[in-house]
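Comment thread on ticket #2218

A.B. wrote:
> Attaching the input chain for the structure job we discussed in standup.
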Amino acid sequence: RIAIARALLKNAPILILDE
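C.D. wrote:
> Ran it. Output below, let me know if you need it in another format.
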């Protein structure tokens, strides 16, 4: 679960840029 949370945090900036 922690790994998933970390992955989401790492992907957060990318998702924002995509928007």
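A.B. wrote:
> Thanks. Noting for the ticket: The longest helix spans residues 2-18.
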